[in-house]
Design brief:
The chain has about 70 residues and is mainly alpha-helical. Helix 1 (about 10-20) packs across helix 2 (about 25-70). The radius of gyration is 22 Å and the shape is rod-shaped. The protein has helices spanning about 10-20, 25-70. It starts with 9 loop residues before the first helix and ends with a helix.
């Protein structure tokens, strides 16, 4: 696996120290944070797609109800 180098700002450094305080090594903490962040992004995208599908379905249902009233 490729090695990376990053400069941490104060907030990221505090977050890393908090993860390391749980007993994770620095590498484990960084890997787990990257994976968790990517999973949240995927879930967010999936949720947005689901909301869009539900809204589209709701609009279709509303169109049917409007048509039934005529």
């Amino acid at each position: 696996a490729p090695a990376i180098s990053v400069r941490l700002d104060d907030e990221a450094d505090r977050a890393l120290r908090a993860l390391e305080a749980t007993g994770l090594s620095r590498s484990e903490a960084i890997r787990s944070a990257l994976i968790a962040s990517a999973q949240r992004l995927r879930r967010s995208s999936e949720l947005a797609a689901e909301v869009a599908a539900l809204e589209a379905d709701e609009q279709g249902d509303q169109g049917l109800r409007d048509g039934e009233r005529r």
